[in-house]
Amino acid sequence: MNKIYLPNGMEAQEAHYNEFPIEEYNTNPYIQALPPIADKKTIIRNLLTVPNFKEEERQLDSSYRVHIVNRLYKLFQPLPQHVQIWNMVFSLISQGYLARNPFNKEYRRYVNATGKQIINRSFDINSRTDFRTTASCGLVIGYSGMGKTTTINKILSNVSSVIVHDTYNGQHFNQTQLVHITLQTPHNASLKALSLQFFMKVDEILGTNNFKKYVSRNLSVDAMLPLMGIVSQNIGLGLMVIDEVQHLQNRGVQQMMNYFVTLMNSFGVPVIFIGTPASYPIFQNEFRIARRVTGSGEVIWNNMNNDEEFRLFLNSIWKYQWNRKFTQLNDELIQIFYEETQGISDLIIKLFVNVQHMAIHSGKEELTVDIVKRTVRDNFKMMKPMLDALRSGNPYKIAKYEDLRKSEQKNNIRSEVLAQPTKNYNEARTKERTVATSNKLKNKMKQEYESNDIRLILDQANKSGTPAYQLLIEHGYIDEMTYKQGDLIV
C-alpha cells in the first residue's frame, strides 16, 4: 500500500481493496480497504514487541546498563486477552460498516436526507428512521496496569488511521476514510467537552476545519450531536474509542449513554469503552448498552492468577537480563514476583526493571529473592496498601480501591444451566435447586461459612467468648481509629 501525505502533513494510506471469503464484505469499499482478517498466529506476530538485546551488553559499565534496562518498558507479550480484543476490534469495525455502504442507494438517500434535516435544524434524534444500524459496542474493563489502552492502541496501529480512496470497481470514489479515533472521557463527564474534543481531533488528523465550521460558543450539546453524526458519515468513521470511562461514575451517566446510543443508532458508529472496574456498574445499569455489548465484545480483565499465563508472561521477559550474572528463573523467584505484583503486568515489568537496577547498583549483579524484597521495600511503598488488599482476598479491603474490584464469577451450576439445550433446562434447573437447598440445610445445621463471611467471625466469638468487636478489628473488617505517634493527621 502506498503512503500519501495529507496537506497538513499527516500520513495516510492509499486504498487497496482486499477480497474476503465473506460475501457481504466484498461490495463495500470501506470494508475492503481494511487489512485481511488475521489468524491467531498472525495476530500474535503483529502484536509481539521485544526489546533489542545483546548478551555482550552485560559487560558494559553499570552507568550504561541502568539505562539499557529501561528498554523493557517497550516489551509487549501477547496473551489470550489480546487475541480476544483484536478480534473484537476488527469485528466491530467491519460489522459497523455493513449498513454504511457508500454505494448503497438507500444509505446515500438516508445520508442526504439526514444532512438536510441537520442543516435546517429539523433533525430529531428520537424519531424512527428507515436506517437499520449494524453498529454495536465493545467493552474492555480491567485493573489499572493491565495494559487496556496500550493493547487497543497496539491493535489499531495495525490498520491505517486514514485511508484515501480514488476509484472503486471502475467508479469514481473520491473519499477520505477515518478508520478510528480515540477520545478521553472528560474528568467532569462533560458532554460538551467530549464533543469539542471530537471536532478538534478530527481536524488535527485530517486537516479539516469542522471546528470552525460547526462549533460556536452558544451551541448546545443537543445541537452538536447531530453535527458529530454528519461529520462521522462524511469521513466514513469506522470506530470511536472512549477511554477512562470510569469518569462517568459520579455524574452525567444517563445523558452520556443517550449520547453514545444515538451515535450507534442514528449514525452507525461503533464504540469501544475502556475503563477500570469502577465503571462496570454503569454498564450493568444501562440495558441499552449492556444489550449491545453482549455478544459483541465484553472483556473483563482481572489480574493474572499464579498459573500458566503468569508463568508465560514472566518467562517471556526473563531472558532480558543486563546483570553480569544471568539468573535462571526458579519456583522461588516466580512465587516472590507473584506475591509482590499480584499478577498485574505493569507492576511485573516495573519490578523486573527495578530489581535489575538494584542488582547493578549494589554490585551483586544477579537476581535474588533478597534483592527483590529490598526493591519492593524501597520502590513500591505507595503500592503496598493496594497489593496487601489484593493478597488478603478480603472483599471489604479490596472495595476500598475501586480500580481493584474483581468482577464476580458466575456460579458453576448456573453456567451449566445456561449451557444446556432447552429440552434439558428443567432438569438442570431442578438439580440447581436441589443442590442449593442441600447446601442451605448443611450450612444451617453446621454453621459453616465461606472464609470471607462475616458470620464466621461472629460464630468464632460465640464459641471462644472473645468480644466480636475485637475479632472484627483483628480480621480487618473494622478500622481501629486510634491515633499513634507519627501518624499523619489530615
Features:
490 residues; alpha/beta; Rossmann fold; 3 domains; 5-stranded parallel β-sheet; 4-stranded mixed β-sheet; 22 helices; globular; AAA_22; ExeA_AAA_ATPase_DNA-bind; nucleotide-binding; ATP-binding protein
Give a written overview of the molecule:
Residues 134-278 form the ORC1/DEAH AAA+ ATPase domain. Keywords: ATP-binding, Nucleotide-binding. The protein has three domains: 3-33 and 79-301, Rossmann fold; 308-396; 451-490, no CATH class. It contains 22 helices and nine strands. Helix 4 crosses helix 6 (148-156). The protein has helices at 29-32, 40-47, 62-68, 80-98, 105-119, 148-156, 191-206, 210-214, 221-234, 253-267, 280-284, 287-293, 308-318, 331-341, 345-362, 369-379, 384-392, 395-398, 412-419, 425-446, 454-464, 468-474, and strands at residues 3-5, 11-14, 137-142, 162-168, 171-178, 180-184, 239-243, 271-275, 298-301. With 490 residues, the protein is an alpha/beta fold.
Write the layout of secondary structure elements.
Elements lengths: L2 E3 L5 E4 L14 H4 L7 H8 L14 H7 L11 H19 L6 H15 L17 E6 L5 H9 L5 E7 L2 E8 L1 E5 L6 H16 L3 H5 L6 H14 L4 E5 L9 H15 L3 E5 L4 H5 L2 H7 L4 E4 L6 H11 L12 H11 L3 H18 L6 H11 L4 H9 L2 H4 L13 H8 L5 H22 L7 H11 L3 H7 L16
Parallel strand pairs: 2-4, 3-8, 3-9, 6-7, 7-8
Antiparallel strand pairs: 1-2, 4-5
Helix pairs in contact: 4-6, 5-9, 7-9, 9-10, 13-15, 14-15, 14-16, 15-16, 19-20
